[in-house]
Amino acid sequence: MKSSIADSIKSLPPLSKTIADINRVYADEEAGIGELAKVIEPDPMIVANLLKAANSPLYGFGKEIKNVSQAVSLFGMSMTRSIALGNAVRKLLNVDMQPYGITSDKFAEISAMQATLMNKWYLKIDRAKAEKLYLAAFLQETGKILIASDVIKDDEDISFKSEVEMSNNLAAVEKSYVNVTSSEVTALIFEHWGFDNEFVEMIRYADNPSAAPKEVQEFATALHIVKTVLPVNRPFAEQAINFGLRKARDAGYEYELLEDAIDDMLDTIEAS
């Protein structure tokens, strides 16, 4: 890994007090949706992003969501935390995703799509695992923000973007420029912010799940499959879907469950 990326991680500021409060409420088994809404309401940026997400066709709630309590009630504790945390992280890291050929808004949209696909797929497999994987899927591409920044600083954004546009393996492109993949960078970011070891490790190996420790291998494999179906350069492209389904089958999944989740999302997107 380039020293410039390591230095960027070390110099990251802490997450906001609101995010710390959200994590505290989420970890409290006695707390409920009301307490979570209460800590979110004073933060206008998180409120705006949460309501924007709630009214997105991606989630298909079918009515206008006008306040935090409604949004938290519909999303639930886990999804609310994931959306709030994802938007806070992107704001803190000052997103410029031009080297990947996408806008910051598109990057946020693809992150949400990865999380939604993971949820739709894994709820059919194991609800407890789906909850763990939702947050990881939402945040697993965070490292791309620091990689994009480093590529821009080194004035390599044009050549990087050209390779990204043509590539079926973004991790290989990243490795060739900064000697590290975005999954590894993401893991180091959340390690820096004190997230639990299981969460960090499942993301660390998402670009190379066969190398993952046994206890997180299934999680890393699932994250890898979802990012294969929804790569930031060609989300839901036919080839990407086929690659993802093949990887799911090879990993021993009933790949029809993933196929159904993909079809469900494509129907929602086409209807919007």
TrEMBL record:
It comes from the Bacteria. Residues 12-209 form the HDOD domain. InterPro entries: HDOD (IPR013976), RNase_Y/CdgJ (IPR052340). Pfam families: HDOD. PANTHER family: CYCLIC DI-GMP PHOSPHODIESTERASE CDGJ, PTHR33525. This is HDOD domain-containing protein.
